[in-house]
Design goal:
Elements lengths: L4 H6 L11 H15 L14 H9 L11 H10 L4 H10 L2 H5 L2 H10 L24 H11 L4 H12 L3 H5 L2 H10 L4 H14 L6 H20 L1 H11 L4
Helix pairs in contact: 2-14, 3-13, 4-5, 5-13, 8-9, 11-12, 13-14
Length: 244
Amino acid sequence: SEWGGYEMEDAGFLKEDILGIKQLDKFADILKLIGENGGEVPDIYNLPHDPEVYRYFGNGWNGDVFQLGSSGLTEYTKSLKPQRLEDLIAAVAVYRPGPMENGYHEIYVKCKNEGRVPEYLWGTENIAKDTFGLLIYQEQVMQVMQEVGGLSMKEADDVRRAMGKKKLEALTKWKSVVQKGFEDKGATQAQFNEVWDAVLEFAKYGFNKSHSAAYAMTGYVSQYLKVHYPIEYWTVALSYANEE
């Protein structure tokens, strides 16, 4: 019988998820074509910040863009009007069922573009400033556990793992430890409870920022190549497309 990932880890093995990303093959083909056409081949892992690339995202010109080219995320980037990589990373993380059920995608846009004032949970102002008060990444919850709850980095990672596995009973054993850390820093029990409840809600759908960042950066590279090398970009896009 086949073992699940968590069973493997409990038995002492290391589970690795290896993804085959077709987009990386596309990048290689685009760069090869740029060189063959006499162009200067860009270093796609050190691209500059380019407002024109973000204008494309804001207009929803996301055709064949990795991860951000779906109809849903295309409409979202049109309302989001991203202006920095952090916005794209957040888009990938919030445009998912759990955060959307809680309205996070709409709150992010309202704070960014419509002057809504961010609301911060107690002690999270520095941790959530880039995401307008929203806790949308597992790494942010780890920071809360460390910087406000007084846990070590290892303990905060244990909390993250419990959240990732939806092991809520494993989370509850940390509650009194974290509460003491909060109260030592001046939080009331009500303020702590509000943060803890938010963390438990987050545990149902939390996303890790490193994953979201890798996807967002790959999407940015796609859009950058489209803006600056449209002939090579679309030649490769069409060569990979199915016949229809």
